[in-house]
Write a structure and sequence with these properties.
Layout lengths: L1 E3 L2 E4 L1 H14 L4 H16 L10 H9 L10 E6 L2 E5 L5 H19 L1 E9 L6 H9 L2 E7 L3 E3 L9 E2 L3 E5 L7 E5 L6 H10 L8 E2 L9 H5 L2 E2 L5 H16 L22 E9 L6 H16 L15 H13 L1 E3 L1 H15 L1
Parallel strand pairs: 4-5
Antiparallel strand pairs: 1-2, 2-14, 3-4, 5-13, 6-9, 6-13, 7-8, 9-10, 11-12
Helix pairs in contact: 1-2, 1-11, 2-4
Protein name: Hydroxyacid dehydrogenase
Family: Belongs to the LDH2/MDH2 oxidoreductase family.
Keywords: Oxidoreductase
Length: 349
């Protein structure tokens, strides 16, 4: 391990092993801990540190309060050849996510297209790690999850819609896959909190006050609601994600989703969906590689408006960070590392 500014750089294998021991220390069986840590370490490799192993804090708190089931009995059923239903038994979200991803892969291998609906889950991390795993196995994917409510219905004055993320991925056997992972709000609440700390105003497109009126005051925004991307169009997309992830899966939806902040000891019953397409059924490996590389080239070759910022396609930044951190190590906050060690040490004790 080496110091890198305020963070500590840890090699991927070492961090993965520590993460597994930490989740085992919180009560997870070994293979379940492996699944969870695979998603969270990929998030850290992508530079998505807020959704990486830092989640040991919130996941760990709820595991210790029995708000999350450390030893679930996850069930997968198949009501139709290309359809899988995953009952997560209130497990850690990335564990349910990995079960659903594998179930959707199996269905897509059989039918060319497969979809898994998961219920009885919790926060499952970012979507892009699942998209990458699917893409590396040759599957294009559309993946979504619902979430606790932070957005008001369009024109409303209270939080009834989740900041439900959706992601898309397309494999490229001979290059970088396409990876798009986005939530439904214009910005995360963390950006608004940072503006408040800095004493700065925010754009009036970020959030509303408690009365549903656009505001440039970060304090009023934190007391109000996030605004969806694309206005009413983003609102509609957020509802569509919740319909697939929550309503159709049999999970909670909209205001039925429990907040882990307000009720950390109660199941959230979040839902997810994993729609996979077996790209190998569409053409040869070379065919897909040529088309994907040409697709990326058309975008990359556009003359940039700012010479310091070349044109990219979604996923380029994350995959560049992944490559660099796999070579040089992952930069982790000292507090996160200390918490991982604490829980890993509890296992040894």
């Amino acid at each position: 391990m080496t110091q890198a500014r305020e963070k500590i750089v840890v090699q991927e294998a070492q961090l993965t092993e520590l993460g597994i021991r930490a989740f085992e220390g919180l009560g997870l069986p070994h293979q379940d801990a492996v699944d969870v840590v695979r998603i969270l370490v990929l998030a850290d490799l992508f530079g998505l540190s807020t959704h990486g192993l830092s989640r040991i804090e919130s996941y760990g708190e709820r595991l210790q309060l029995s708000g999350i089931n450390a030893r679930p009995n996850i069930q997968v059923t198949s009501p139709a050849p290309g359809l899988r239903l995953v009952a997560g038994d209130n497990a850690v979200g990335p564990l349910v996510g990995m079960h659903a991803l594998r179930a959707a892969m199996q269905a897509a291998e059989q039918c060319g297209v497969g979809i898994a609906f998961a219920r009885q889950s919790n926060h499952f991390g970012p979507i892009s790690p699942y998209g990458l795993i699917a893409a590396e196995a040759g599957f294009a994917s559309i993946i979504g999850s619902n979430a606790t409510t932070t957005i008001a219905p369009w024109g409303g004055t209270d939080a009834r819609v989740g900041n439900s993320p959706i992601g898309f991925a397309v494999p490229n056997p001979g290059g970088n896959p396409f990876l798009l992972d986005m939530a439904m709000s214009v910005v995360a609440r963390a950006k608004i909190r940072n503006a408040l700390k800095a004493g700065a105003a925010i754009p009036d497109t970020w959030a509303t006050d408690a009365f549903g009126r656009p505001t440039t005051d970060p304090k009023q925004a934190l007391d109000g609601f996030l605004l969806p991307i694309g206005g009413h169009k983003g609102y509609g997309l957020a509802l569509m994600v919740d319909l697939f992830a929550g309503l159709l899966s049999g999970a909670a939806y909209l205001t039925h989703v429990k907040s882990w902040v307000d009720a950390p000891d109660e199941p959230q019953n979040l839902g997810h969906f994993f729609l996979l397409i077996d790209a190998k059924r569409l053409g040869s490996t070379q065919w897909l590689t040529d088309r994907m590389n040409d697709f990326a080239s058309i975008l990359h070759d556009s003359p940039p408006a700012d010479a310091e910022r070349p044109v990219i396609q979604p996923g380029d930044i994350e995959l560049s960070r992944l490559k660099a951190q796999r070579a040089d190590g992952i930069a982790i906050e000292p507090e996160v590392l200390a918490l991982l060690r604490k829980h890993a040490g509890e296992l040894a004790a």
